[in-house]
Amino acid sequence: MGLEWEQVMVDSADPEALGRWWAEALGWVVVCDEPNEFEIRPSEDQLPGLLFTTVPEAKVVKNRLHLDFRPKDQAAEVARLLALGASRVDIGQGDVPWVTLADPEGNEFCVLTQRAG
């Protein structure tokens, strides 16, 4: 196959602020800091990255695509992310073992339980 996954685009009101929040949350590095474009990656030469761009409209409904993360300690990671500014959200997930959070601009993501085995 000739495709390489480069990045995930994230629409935002403030690309730098949101990008810096995600860089802190993930422990990633900033690789592009332009006025309307802010990119982070796991390391400078590692893909894929997250590219934050400016859009004029606010987020209205739940994301059609979101990120899932599997930490070693779900409770500790949820507490850390909440302390960084994430918020708990209910998008109709019901009673599930994962925790659904939103970043400071309302983009949902899930913190899963530790992988079995």
From TrEMBL:
Transmembrane intervals: none
SUPFAM superfamilies recorded: Glyoxalase/Bleomycin resistance protein/Dihydroxybiphenyl dioxygenase
PROSITE patterns registered for this protein in UniProt: VOC
Superkingdom of origin organism: Bacteria
InterPro entries: Glyas_Bleomycin-R_OHBP_Dase, Glyoxalase_6, VOC_core
Domain VOC: residue ranges: 4-114
Protein name, entry field: VOC domain-containing protein
